[in-house]
Amino acid sequence: MRDLDFIDETIAKRTAANPAFPALVETASRRRALMRALAERRTTQRRSQTAVAAAMDTSQSFVARLERSADDARISTVERYAASLGYVVQYHLLPATDEGRSSPPVVVH
Predict the structure, then answer these.
(1) What is the pLDDT of residues 9-48, one digit of tens each?
(2) Phi and psi torsions of 97, nearest 5°
(3) What is the pLDDT of residue 3?
(4) Which of 4, 30, 38, 85 falls between 20 and 30 A from 60, CA-CA?
(5) How confident is the model at residue 101 (pLDDT cuts 50, 70, 90)?
(6) What superfamily in CATH does domain 6-100 come from?
(7) What are the residue ranges spanned by the domains of the chain?
(8) Which residues, including other chains, have CB under 8 Å from residue 60's CB and lie 6 or more apart?
(9) Considering the entire predicted model, what is its pTM?
(10) Cβ neighbours, 10 Å, residue 55
């Protein structure tokens, strides 16, 4: 068995204080994966953050923050970002079991 590192210790402490904490971490991970996938699409399309920001009617710095952290991005913001790249966001309900969580967090067609 391996020793706990700082992240493991932090998750354990926060889980002790809030049993829902692992689910919050999982949700944040999926949100970051979605924003990474969109940022990769932007790069593949050779579009700058400034161009995407103009299409979204916002600033380049906002797009940079969105791509970097997406802490609590509103669904409407993510949809606008995706639309600026020619994508739509679809929603799927998955069972909140280990089986449902084993699905990839982002599927791009």
Answers:
(1) 888 899 999 888 888 888 888 888 889 999 999 999 999 9
(2) -115, 175
(3) 67
(4) 30
(5) low
(6) lambda repressor-like DNA-binding domains (1.10.260.40)
(7) 6-100
(8) 48, 49, 50, 53
(9) 0.74
(10) 15
